[in-house]
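Action item from last week, closing it out:
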Amino acid sequence: MTEMEIRSQTAAVIPAYQDEKHIGDIVRRTRERLDRVLVVDDGSTDQTAQRAREAGAEVVVHGQNRGKGEAIKTGLGHWFAMANSSSDGLGREVAWVILLDSDGQHLPEEIDSFLVAAMSATQPAFFIGNRMNNLAGMPFIRRVVNRCMSRRISRLCGQTIPDTQCGFRMLPRQLIPELLRPESVRGFDYETEVLIIASRKGYRIDSLPITTVYTDQVSKIRPVRDALRFFKLMWRYRAIGS
């Protein structure tokens, strides 16, 4: 399969919350690489949804803020249903989904690296960005926390994942039903759960070097609450084993 064929079968999901400043630019740059771009506005009270539509994205709006995990699940469910109905309006099947953040931390231009990796995959694979090879732009506390959490999650997954907290990802459509379970977590810890589920379903998780970008973004992570959720998730999966 060629890169062009992979590109034509790939759709993007961009979960967004209060990101009117960045979302238009992110959508436009993503659409330079992919025809199908979905923004899931997770209950924003600003102009996030309007800016995304103006930039050419399809938009789904949550009536209230549900958490990043729920926004991602909405986006994945949208493309999975579209693929099964074969009615995306473009006459092409969705075989892969790209996930990237709405606040400018991911460069849409680097989608190309994911497409090339998917083109050469010879076994079920899940691709995730890795910022840990170039830490110059990453705040020190994030660097420490990321390394600690990545070591713990890697052990639980049974494979090395240098940057488990990276939201820039590419996954195959076949994995999506496993990621839409109603009992799945709702917040940022959902991104950790996705890695555990994929690993336990036999997917190799390949890390691709990406650029570390930090500008004026304000983190939506709440350290105490989200740390407690993370450890609760880890405990649950250790308890149920493989």
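Closing note: The first strand starts at residue 10 and ends at 16.
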